[in-house]
Amino acid sequence: MNFRSEASRGYSLSAPATAYVGFLVAAPLVILIAYSFWTQTYVTLDKTPTLKNYRDALADPLVRHLVLRSIWIAGAVTAVTVALAYPIAYFIAVKARKKTIWLLLITIPFWSSYLLRVFAWKLILGFNGVMNSALLALGLISEPLDFLLYNEFAVVLTLAHAWAPFAILPIYVSLQKIDPSLLEAATDLGNSPFQRFMRVTLPLTIPGVIAACMIIFIPTVGDYVTPALVGGSDGKMIANLIQVQFGAANNWPLGATLSLIAMLSVGFVAIVFVITATQFGRRIR
Amino acid sequence: MTDRNIIELRDVEKRYGTFVAAGGINLDLKEGEFFSLLGPSGCGKTTVLRMIAGFQEPTKGTVLIDGQDMEGVPANNRPTNMVFQSYAIFPHLNVGNNVAYGLRGKAPMAEIDQRVAEALEMVELGGLQDRGASELSGGQRQRVALARALIMRPKVLLLDEPLSALDKKLREQMQFEMRNLQQSLGITFVMVTHDQYEAMTMSDRIGVMFNGRLKQVDTPTTLYARPCDQQVASFIGEMNILPAQLLGETGDTLSIDAVAFGQMEIQRNPNVTTSSREMNIGIRPEQLEITAEEPEDYPSTVQGTVSNVAFYGENIHYHIQVAETEKPISVSVPNYFHTVDFKRGDAVWLGLQGASVIDLGTDTE
Question: Structure pTM?
Answer without folding.
Answer: 0.85
